[in-house]
Amino acid sequence: MMGVRPNRKRLELMLMLLIGLAWGLLLSELMKRTRWQNSADRLKEESSPFPSSQRSRNLPTPPTTAPSTTNPPPDIQAARLFNETRVLCMVLTSPKTHHTRAVHIKRTWGRRCNKLIFMSTKADKELGSVALNVREGYSNLWPKTRAALQYVYKHHFQKYDWFLKADDDTYVIMENLRAFLHAHNFREPVYFGNKFRQHGYMSGGAGYVMSKMALHRLVKLGFSNSSICTNRNYGYEDVELGRCLAGVGVVGGDSRDENGLSRFIPFSPLHWYPQPPDWYQPLLYYTSPDNSSDCCSNTAISFHYNIAQEFYVLEYIIYKLRIFGINRELGPLPKKKTSSGTTSNHFRTTNDETGHNALIKMVPGKNVTKPNYRTKTTSKFKK
Question: DSSP E strands: which ranges in 198-331?
Answer without folding.
Answer: 208-211, 251-252, 264-265, 302-303
